[in-house]
Write a structure and sequence with these properties.
Layout lengths: L11 H12 L9 H18 L1 H12 L8 H14 L9 H8 L11 H19 L6 H22 L4 H5 L1
């Protein structure tokens, strides 16, 4: 019998995103309702049994408090400015779409969609700009978005080969 990699009933996407947040030392307030619900309904116990090193990280994350730095309206406006300045043939992004990428509702680990990549890279750029302005709340967010941007690049390269994603959107 093989050991499951993730808790029963929990999707790979949700468990990977929880693990990424825990490893990056993010505050527990960054968890989405879905992630929090899974942890409280048995997933944390599963982690304690099967992955104790991650269980400790997750418990510490749940104790940490901190601001969730994103205002989805501002991020959507930022992405839309990039879309219009680069003259991309993509419809405007809604705040719900930016939230979906930031809160891992659209799967950045498996996605090779050019639009999702555009949103993720724009969010990463937004985080870097906020850090340059001295806003320390975006430090962890920049690390997380940078990490899943690398995963997306690997998925795109694996499925489509070496391509310039922004060129596909023009």
């Amino acid at each position: 019998m093989t050991r499951k990699k993730y808790p029963p009933g929990m999707t790979t996407k949700v468990s990977k995103s929880i693990e990424l947040l825990a490893i990056a030392k993010a505050p527990g307030s960054w968890l989405s309702r879905e992630q929090f619900k899974f942890l409280l309904t048995g997933a944390l116990d599963w982690y304690k049994e099967h992955k104790p090193h991650l269980a400790k990280e997750i418990e510490e994350m749940l104790k940490r408090e901190g601001p969730f730095p994103f205002n989805f309206y501002k991020v959507a406006d930022y992405v839309n400015k990039i879309i219009s300045s680069e003259k991309l043939k993509v419809r405007q992004v809604t705040p719900a779409e930016t939230e979906a990428v930031i809160r891992f509702k659209r799967d950045p680990f498996l996605s090779y969609s050019p639009k999702i990549y555009l949103i993720a890279s724009s969010v990463h750029r937004y985080c870097k700009e906020q850090l340059k302005k001295g806003n320390k709340d975006f430090e962890i967010a920049e690390q997380i978005t940078g990490k899943y941007l690398k995963w997306m690049e690997l998925n795109i390269e694996r499925t489509k080969g070496k391509v310039n994603i922004l060129e596909e959107l023009k």
